[in-house]
Design brief:
The chain is an alpha+beta fold. The protein is built from 4 helices and 4 strands, in the order E-H-E-E-H-H-E-H.
């Protein structure tokens, strides 16, 4: 089971760049699908959010092993895709996220630190 995730959040397309934003979204879906077939990703999902008055319009959630996702983030292919996305959508961001068994480890670290600072 995956112990790590990558959250890739995005806002709305820059006005006049809607078609390009759709193109880059499709490129991302193709890349995630290929990486899943190759075993580099355990899974991925895309989400579009309902209108809510905030800046986040949707996100991708990629799941896999921390080492594999680290390699992905450092790859030229990922860097090229995320650079293109930054140029055509507002509020673009990439954040690593613990999941699975790492949640218990993170909680233990938190409780230890909280105990030390009490």
């Amino acid at each position: 089971m995956a112990d790590w995730g990558i959250f890739i959040g995005f806002g709305f397309p820059v006005r006049g760049r809607e078609q390009k934003a759709s193109q880059v979204f499709g490129e991302a879906m193709e890349l995630w699908g290929r990486l899943q077939q190759e075993g580099e990703l355990e899974s991925f999902e895309a989400f579009f959010l309902e209108p809510h008055g905030g800046d986040l319009g949707g996100f991708f959630l990629l799941r896999g092993e921390q080492d594999a996702l680290g390699r992905l983030r450092a790859s030229d292919e990922f860097q090229r895709l995320t650079t293109r996305a930054q140029l055509i959508v507002e509020n673009f961001g990439v954040v690593g996220a613990a999941t699975g068994d790492l949640i218990a480890q993170q909680m233990q670290l938190f409780l230890e630190a909280a105990g030390e600072l009490a």
